[in-house]
Amino acid sequence: MLIAIDIGNTNVVVGVFEGENTDLRTKWRLQSNIHRTTDEYMVLMGDLMRFEGITADQVRGVVVSSVVTPLTRIFRKLSVTLFRKEPLIISAGIKTGMPIRTDNPREVGADRIVNAVAGYAQARGAVIVVDFGTATTFDVVNFQGCYVGGCIMPGVNVSLEALVERTDRLPLVEIDRPRKVVGRNTVNSLQSGIYYGYVSMIQGISHRIIKEEGCRFSIIATGGLGSLFHLEEGLFDEYIHDLTLQGLKILYERNRA
């Protein structure tokens, strides 16, 4: 089995792949908390593994993508202690199979490279990957298979929470897809502004990327809220919830030798 760990600013997502199958056997979502110790995360992982009937000696490898440096250290120690495996940590210098054509390749987030690799493998050609996380990111791979950069903007939840925090009378609402753009009350107006505002932003940025790069792209969405925005017809070609975990598996296999 392969344990793939995606450490984000909000959540740590752990996926378990069995054999050469690209389908997940199971996955778990933990809170990203730099104040938790390695031992605490080990207890959580141990309990989840027992529930699924997975033992540590069944694990053949561990791969980690992280944007939270303290948690990178914690999960490296967890891997060595619990699985007796030195994890593959996605960072500069690993084999990606994809040229990174940015000003400073070392500053590109590990999660973004993982998404780009997985998106290109899925699309089999030029691709824009839109990831709905703490930040909403666009990652662009051109028709030559080169990662050429992208865009980073505040995530949907972050934008809404910042607005509510900075105002006195606006409530925190559930992010949903309203039937109409024009809201008849405060809740509907907020939902419409957030949802259709992001739809228009995604459409606009995607159009600009396509025009700037001068080629046809597949557009793939991932991340929790991607499933909601995929309801908007024509916004994305495909929604793949576990794209990052799939990318981690691809990169692990490329670096096994």
TrEMBL record:
Annotated positions binding substrate: 109-112, 186
Q: Which residues bind ATP?
A: 6-13, 134
Domain of life from the UniProt record: Bacteria
- Record field: catalytic activity: (R)-pantothenate + ATP = (R)-4'-phosphopantothenate + ADP + H(+)
Keywords attached to this Swiss-Prot or TrEMBL record, sorted alphabetically, are:
ATP-binding, Coenzyme A biosynthesis, Cytoplasm, Kinase, Metal-binding, Nucleotide-binding, Potassium, Transferase
GO terms, biological process: coenzyme A biosynthetic process
Task: Identify which top EC class this enzyme belongs to.
Answer: transferase
How the cofactor is bound: the record states: A monovalent cation. Ammonium or potassium.
Protein name per the record: Type III pantothenate kinase
Q: Which organism is it from?
A: Desulfurispira natronophila
Q: What is the lineage of its organism?
A: Bacteria, Pseudomonadati, Chrysiogenota, Chrysiogenia, Chrysiogenales
Gene that encodes it? coaX
